[in-house]
Amino acid sequence: MSSYNVLVCASCAEEPSIFACAQCGREDHPYGGQRCARCVLSERLTGLLTDPATGRIRPQLQPLFEAMTSSERPQTAI
User: Which domain of life does the UniProt lineage start with (predicted)?
Assistant: First the structure.
């Protein structure tokens, strides 16, 4: 919390970080280990939705991937 009662990241508040995702560095949504829920979800969805023949997410599944990984609470999607 800043002196204005606004939620800010640890570095902005000049405080040591309690949690920072080892993959993306974000300080929100810790999810086991040292990564955030958003990174875990992205990895799992990529594995599930990737076409083995092309190594890419199928274009028709891309909107689903985007919607799920941009959800406010990624833990819910996991």
Answer: Bacteria
- Place 30 in a pLDDT band, splitting at 50, 70 and 90: confident
**pLDDT exceeds cutoff 90 at 21:** no
Q: Give the residue numbers spanning the domain of 33.
A: 19-78
Token duo for residue 30: 């810790």
What digits encode the pLDDT tens for the residues 45-59?
A: 999 999 999 999 999
CA pair distance 75, 5, nearest whole angstrom: 26
Full DSSP string of the chain: --TTS----TTTTT---S---TTT---S-B-STTSBHHHHHHHHHHHHHEETTTTEE-GGGHHHHHHHHT-S-HHHH-
User: pTM value?
Assistant: 0.74
Domain-embedded: residue 2: no
